[in-house]
Protein 1
Amino acid sequence: MKIILLTICLSCVSLVAHGQERVLKVTLEGLIPYDTLKCSTVSEYFDKIYYLGKCQTSTNSWLFHIPDTVFEESRYIRFFANRKNTPEIKYIRPSFRIITERDTTSFWSELSFFEKTDTLSVYAQFVRQDTIRNSIYYGTYGTDQIVITPKFDLKNPSLELQRAIVNTNNHYAKYKGAPSNQFYDIFCRMISQAPSSHSSMLLLYGERNTFSLEQLLSLRNMFVEEQKQSHYGRKLDEYIKLLMDKFPDTELTNCLTKQKETIVVNENKYTLLVFSASWCAPCHKLIPLLKELYEKKKEVMDIVYVTLDEPDRLSEWNQLVKKQEISWRTLTVDGKINEIRDRYKVFSIPYSYLIYPGKKKADRLEIRKDEDKLKIENLNLAE
């Protein structure tokens, strides 16, 4: 078998002008060559942009040219390979791990890092590959197609790439389920070790709901100014502002009356704002709890749904509301899904805010948690 070098090399130059390109260079070691290799950059709300690599046969490398703004704003990058005359293979999805002196990470198919260096070279050695059949997750259930997941060890990764994978592994694998105060200590150590790290800021923004406002402010202030002014640094500031300032209300369309109205209609009461959708199974499971809370607290608290359904699925949402006999108001974003998600920093659904009387502030709540449910049950208008 011909030995090929697989290198994932990001050539990241300083951000000077909007639209400047970055070079992503990919090469494989210890594997039969692929016919094509493409990557996708995945943004905050899972919008994807695909890039097809240009093969350099002399060096067995693949080059991708990606605008700097796309690079900085992406949450992570995934790779997909293909070989000709293999219709049984839906796609080939490489994943990577890092072996350090202290530990070995899990294999991750997403790489999230962004560095201001002229050239970042990363080498990966083929380890093994898995064949996945009948997978609902990969869309091959009930078909004859398979998904190949080749696994690689990254060799001599940059400090930032190593940091990104190790910290991601620690958060989502090694310390999964740990108490929130332990996560705060982990993030304190992580940021203090590299206050200029893009991947650490990205991870903090992604896990912003894990921390109290005070903890979030403390962690944010540990970064250098350049990271505070980065894309995700500014996003984090927007989220903090959302919790600290008066609630930024907006007009949306009532699903029943088709009239425009604000999210908060009675400023003398609390308003529990819940983002949902007809296709969201966890949202459906939340309905009995919302009904319970509404019956207990409707004298002091309104509930309002905002559905993130596309306009062509709004009928399905209305059918759900009717079937479940939901008595509170429901609003639609009229197709402006990402605009509203960004305005209120809605990463996933169900997603809830408790808006105080007079819209003086809003608390982010996870009402499936006992402490947040108890907070609602203890609401009164004498506060």
Note: The first strand starts at residue 6 and ends at 12.
Protein 2
Amino acid sequence: MKALKTTISVTELQKTLGLWKSRKITDSVIPKLLHLYLGMTAYMNQEKVYPVDNFYEISIALAFKNAKFLTEAVKRCGSFGIVPARNTYGIKYFYSPLWIEKISSEELPEKFPETFPQDNIYNIYTKGNSSDEELSPEGDKPLEDNSDKKNITTPESLATAKEFFHLINEDSAQKAQILTPLINWFQLHERLTRKHACENLVYMVNELLIPYFASQARFMKSNHAGRLCWLTNLLKSAHGQHLLNDAAKDSRLKREQTAQETKANQRSNHPLNEFEWTDPESGMRFYDDEVEGSVNIPEDAPARPTMTAIWNVLSREWMSPQL
């Protein structure tokens, strides 16, 4: 994916930042908008725009309080092309002029269409839902960055998130729709056995997805159907792909570490003498050969007498190589 404009002058950048300042965009929000302005291709579609389906993931990536605060910042700064829509955000998609053709004045209306709050998977707060949550800034009040107000994981939310995935696993239809494709993905992209692909899924659920949902305050306010929609859309998003890749990487490193520890454990186990080893798990005796590699020793064979001794499978005795 290539940008329409690959360079930007200092003067142009200063002009853009000056515009944002004049529109009361705060210093903490400006770097986030700049990332979008220069282009975050992971969250664009093939038309090089930021579609509404990715607003939630963008807000997570840039540490906005929620997707509504993201879209309010985009509207207020006046530097993005915007296609309005009759949805929660009032936006179908937005884009940077550095990536597609110049923005027309018609695409930057003074007033956006009336929005229609709805019970969607993102559970965006509307005024009156909570005393400490505000949907968006009003009037000339500067746009605030609320990324420091972290959601907090509680024992109750953690237990609820675990139960949510337990219910998915217990329901054959939901399991086939959500979990099985993840196992298939790990098996195909990581070239794993089915067993290891399942282990990747368990890691992803326990270490990434459960903590993620347990930390979201709105998760506790959603019903099971809403959570399923949220999870389904998350897995389709760029953020979901990052989670898949992280789970694959972490599981791969864990398997490599286990293999190294097993090998180190094998090489430290000399129950008979220093000339051979015994696998602590299988009990199999073995020694190293420069040509054949690791060579197994029969259980009833005497201890290997020297470091150069070779086991003769025909005579069933230790032989010393001819020098």
Note: The radius of gyration is 29 Å.
